[in-house]
Amino acid sequence: MNELERVDAYWRAANYLSVGQIYLLDNPLLKEPLRPEHVKPRLLGHWGTTPGLNFCFAHLNRVIERRDQDMIYIAGPGHGGPATVAHAWLEGTYSRLYPEVSQDEAGMRRLFRQFSFPGGIPSHAAPETPGSINEGGELGYSLAHAYGAAFDNPGLVVACVVGDGEAETGALATSWHSGKFLNPETDGAVLPILHLNGYKIAGPTVLARIPEPELIKLMEGYGYRPHVVAGDDPAAVHRLMAETMDTVFDQIAEVRAGSGDRPPMIVLRTPKGWTGPKRVDGRPVEGTWRAHQVPLTGVREDAGRRAALEEWMRSYRPEELFDGDGAPAEDVAALVPKGRRRMSANPHANGGELLRPLVLPDFRGYAAEVKAPASAATEPTRVLGAFLRDVIVANPDNFRLLGPDETDSNRLSAVFEVTGRVWEAEGLETDENLAPDGRVMEVLSEHLCQGWLEGYLLTGRHGLFNSYEAFIHVVDSMFNQHAKWLEASRRIPWRRPVASLNYLLSSHVWRQDHNGFSHQDPGFLDVVVNKKATVVRVYLPPDTNTLLSVADHCLRSRDYVNVVVAGKQPVLDLLPMQDAVAHCTRGLGILPWASTDEGHEPDVVLACAGDVPTLETLAAADLLRRHLPELKVRVVNVVDLMRLQPASEHPHGLSDDAYDALFTPDKPVIFNFHGYPSLIHRLTYRRNGHDNMHVRGYKEEGTTTTPFDMVMMNDIDRFHLVIDVIDRVPGLGDRCARLRQDMADERARARAHTREHGEDLPEIRDWNWPH
Amino acid sequence: MNELERVDAYWRAANYLSVGQIYLLDNPLLKEPLRPEHVKPRLLGHWGTTPGLNFCFAHLNRVIERRDQDMIYIAGPGHGGPATVAHAWLEGTYSRLYPEVSQDEAGMRRLFRQFSFPGGIPSHAAPETPGSINEGGELGYSLAHAYGAAFDNPGLVVACVVGDGEAETGALATSWHSGKFLNPETDGAVLPILHLNGYKIAGPTVLARIPEPELIKLMEGYGYRPHVVAGDDPAAVHRLMAETMDTVFDQIAEVRAGSGDRPPMIVLRTPKGWTGPKRVDGRPVEGTWRAHQVPLTGVREDAGRRAALEEWMRSYRPEELFDGDGAPAEDVAALVPKGRRRMSANPHANGGELLRPLVLPDFRGYAAEVKAPASAATEPTRVLGAFLRDVIVANPDNFRLLGPDETDSNRLSAVFEVTGRVWEAEGLETDENLAPDGRVMEVLSEHLCQGWLEGYLLTGRHGLFNSYEAFIHVVDSMFNQHAKWLEASRRIPWRRPVASLNYLLSSHVWRQDHNGFSHQDPGFLDVVVNKKATVVRVYLPPDTNTLLSVADHCLRSRDYVNVVVAGKQPVLDLLPMQDAVAHCTRGLGILPWASTDEGHEPDVVLACAGDVPTLETLAAADLLRRHLPELKVRVVNVVDLMRLQPASEHPHGLSDDAYDALFTPDKPVIFNFHGYPSLIHRLTYRRNGHDNMHVRGYKEEGTTTTPFDMVMMNDIDRFHLVIDVIDRVPGLGDRCARLRQDMADERARARAHTREHGEDLPEIRDWNWPH
């Protein structure tokens, strides 16, 4: 066989194995005529995209062999799972990782049977798939993942097949612009292969149905040099694809060498379900939407269909592709690269293998000095910025800070002392802090921030995504999918742990008074907590030092999604660093200086989580100390939200005894919370004394106003908390009617002041702590 | 003044009013030198984009006057709220709707003071803004809203300014393709104006920094004829913009007449903060990111800054623009169109004014015949498809069905008997069900489906969005923003009610066994319930007839977001239509034929919500009837989830008495729920007997398997429910150890069967109901 014949043989072998996975339980080599019991009772899988994915695999293997190219493969239409699995099996990786799926007839039988079968493997490219860093279910994130993988990986090419269905999604549509953020010298290259097979599930696709000149302009407009490979005659398309690949990889090398040219991409136009059944029941199938999933149905029951399936499978000439024992024949195996050059075994696609721990400066060195609790204020994210600046210095090639143009707005500006925003497009004199190899990535697309970061993490690096709290909902679905990826990966022994995905949500609900109702939404936490306790962590550090401690912890952690909510406005410094570390380590605890229970059973517990609710709780405790000095008040602050859950529900969960020791089993608890109150009930409803828990939080009241008006609108303000205490501690109601009225009057005065002058309440300067 | 001088005067007036809104409390006409007390204590607002928005307004007004053009305006960079408000005030609309903000000096003072001021108005284009259908906060949805507004509105032009920051978002990036779904003859036209001012908050924007030929190709690739208007000399840019507008509206007319040409769009490149301060403290401001928000700060405190502000405001020559009493001068007023031609008063932008109720066929006519409960099965969404088909026939120009290529997959295919998928791009012989004026809109972008539908609804029409349940999270943030829009609109008397946004979530968590873990997520309901009870409704009809009743109700409702979760697989028909209507009207109720309490106090309540959980609950009730016939079991089904909340929390909430009458105050309740169990606890935690409630639901366990394995993995299966009853009804534990073991054995057998054969449990055919 010549080279292209070997490529064709590899392709036919992959196609044969793909059809087998969709259809067969047994008789994998077709050593006997197909009988009903050889066929799966329930036919599942997506054939339509699969031959195209296989075609790309085969040609990329040819390039790897010719150029000794370091390359990974991202299957955008990853519902073509049979292709990615077939490829890993042909390369021997599958059998190494799953020895029972050996490279022989018995292994091939297992390979077929397990696909989309209970107890088997998913029908999409998934964590279980060797060589994959992209789930093929939700669609839209392949190209962002590809760029994320390429950043800081000079020498690596990330081949990314983009489906023409997927290309209609918002996330993918903006991902094409990622090239403006990729440095041709210090980053790797991305080779997008836009695969036009013309149909989605039932309807046509946009990019396959615009005039080709328009499509070419679109790709040129996105900043690429497009190369079209089109046809349906395999031999002709093989020749064209091979030539095009040679051209394209030459161009990639030139771009890397600093030619300044636009990078290449390929438009591959081949029939949907290529090489599959041409017609079924007189209706066209190959090249149409009917080939999307299972083109021949009823195969187990219908002898004619069975014959058609057998004919289809035999059309790949399996006897040439596998030896008598089922192993890939020599000509097929010849196209398999060696060792780590195999795309299914490339360590970049199992990034934990390459993970280097971050070199972290001692966060204690950035501490805010706290001479007395709550006596001075700092801006937590501004201090964190200094820490991150030094993280960037110490880790120049494996840490990135991402966000939608909010690094300055979120007051992390110190990072710009040592690096800039990555920018490869045109610059102007009036620009500031841009750099072609910057460590900060800003683009007004949460999808790109998230997708890039996922790709960066899954290939063994580290990062932090900072965002306005309300708009992180833009990537709810991407968070969901990443959390599911992590959860599934945990159960796969060969997947090595990767760095956690860290969110810093600043510009949060209580400080978006000026931006108004549209910017006020703390609900991301609710989305997060729906995911498995094994992979999600939520932190609400109340001040600067606790934020530093939490950030250090998150940057060291593996395989989690860490969500940190912290304000950018000045907040009172509560805890000296040593106490802050202890508090964060416990995850929650009593603030003794703010409490008046002095080790005794309290009359009431004021609990709080989040910087603004904590401030209001402290102010309420202060008011109570002044006005009701005999009342025993305990103030409990919660940093690690998952501590509230029972230990049976979350690894961080407190034991019931420890919970009772803090919150008491039977005293009123007024819990002032950063987010929607229901989340606290959700976490604590199995706890003793839950009926005594009264939660304040955001109740979807908001507008353009002052910060203190925001807390009043939602009843989390100090005055309302005092009223809550009066209403809920037995016996206080009658005794304190006057104080209750005073508090109500104070609120009314504060509100009127805000409305009249547009000003906030003056800050409290004379705290009454017993220092 | 000649025409362009009048345009310039209008622009200067709008700019003056915009600056005044950002800065002034008093002295609106600068009748005296600015004193500190004339200036707001807290300076808020976004100047950078504002002069560009004003420039477009002025030139579009010129077009409206010349051509008597029906037109609305969408401000993509709607954080430039001062512009949209200034425009509405100049047009007199503002004073008509808010009489206290009159067109005189006193009104101008109020106009300035209220902007971004407590008790005033938001700093973004918002529901409060006359003429707006697009919130300017989150960014990204303007162009999709514009297309939604244009569909089925022949004669209307929707001018849509797209900011170059916003253009980086995923949603906006794919929105450019909307033209492939717009019929030039039966729909209106969209005129995108891509406004390049070069910067976001702090960094440059992508589209402003690619070579112009590349940008032109991009826009041509998206299917437009771009026209560039660029410059910083107002007189020159006025001339160019006016000429371009004339060309562009001629082209729009030609396209509408069937020329087949691509529609025009404008690229407007002007300085950020145009006409504002050129430099401050020696640093450039106009034309840079420093002009993004408030270009001059410290104005109240600093006399020099105050002088600079005064100079800036006087540069607009207010004495030419307003008469001595503050009303717009004649030359400014001359550019204001008449009546409904004013973009701020166009009824399309207050769509409720144009809303016609849907003509609805009697849904009872589509009922599944139910001879006995649970004796036959139908596919709920397939039957709903027939109803929707006839809704489409009866409402040919104001109802659309949208979805990401899932209409067939979700089994609503009957609609294709009478209409097709909208498709304006190229067609092939192998296509099916495409039509240039189709009523079904399919694109693999939930963002586009949602954005188009929002635009369509807000301009007074009706629609339904069907989606896979897991992937509706893609538009969590858009849902949030729309719910906030509805909530804010409710409080604005002049905003007329619009049709509700209806979601049909099919292909839900319990029937995505074959697609695997990535397709399994019922958490959208949790996101929805975070929003105000006044605007959200959640329905889980358990069978076909209840789905029909719910759908009819939703299509008649106004100003809500209705979420309907319903399966596409065959489910047992439980209720004859008359009972189904009664059940849906109550929202929840006892299924007497499945219960054995016969009007007495039950020993246990089996509650359920959702089709699959209901089936399992019925099967559990059947098992209990067989094995423990003396046990008094009550089966309660919940259709309207909001009924579970206290009446104080939601308008649909049951009274506590009614709740207790159904669920009992003290008996064990085993609640089998479609989604994450915490949602039921959240809704019921204030109810009596909440401590006795045990909720089963999705606990994030999933993989590629069979449907029954899915329910077993999450413990919502019939056998586990029986075990729950045994464990929770006092006294049963000891007595029923054998039955408990039998149930556990049944589960193990079912699981083994699934794993071995890839088959589901056989259906129950011999229900034990006492028919």
Q: How far apart are the termini of chain A?
A: 87 Å
The general outline of chain A is elongated
Q: In CATH terms, what is the fold-level topology of the largest domain in chain A? A: Rossmann fold
State the major sheet of chain A: 6 strands, parallel
Total helical elements of chain A: 25
**Which architecture of the largest domain in chain A per CATH?**
3-Layer(aba) Sandwich
Helix fraction bin of chain A? 25-40%
The gist of it:
Chain A has 25 helices and 22 strands. Chain A is an alpha/beta fold and 771 residues long.
Structural notes for this entry:
Two copies of one chain form a homodimer. The first copy, chain A, is α/β, with parallel strands linked by helices. The first copy, chain A, folds into three domains: 3-336, Thiamin diphosphate (ThDP)-binding fold, Pyr/PP domains (Rossmann fold, 3-Layer(aba) Sandwich), CATH 3.40.50; 379-571, 3-Layer(aba) Sandwich (Rossmann fold), CATH 3.40.50.970; 587-765, Rossmann fold (3-Layer(aba) Sandwich). The first copy, chain A, is 36% helix and 13% strand. Chain A is built from 25 helices and 22 strands. Chain A has a six-stranded parallel beta sheet, sandwiched between helices. In chain A, a hairpin with a 2-residue loop joins strand 6 (279-280) and strand 7 (283-284). In chain A, helix 13 packs parallel to helix 17 (544-556) and helix 19 packs across helix 23 (718-728). The first copy, chain A, is elongated and about 95 Å long. At the A-B interface, helix 7, helix 8, helix 14, helix 15 and helix 16 of A face helix 7, helix 8, helix 14, helix 15 and helix 16 of B. Chains A, B: Its EC number is 4.1.2.-. Chains A, B: Residues 263-284 are annotated as: Disordered. Chains A, B: Belongs to the XFP family. Chains A, B: Residues 2-353 form the Xylulose 5-phosphate/Fructose 6-phosphate phosphoketolase N-terminal domain. Chains A, B: It is an enzyme of class 4 (lyase).
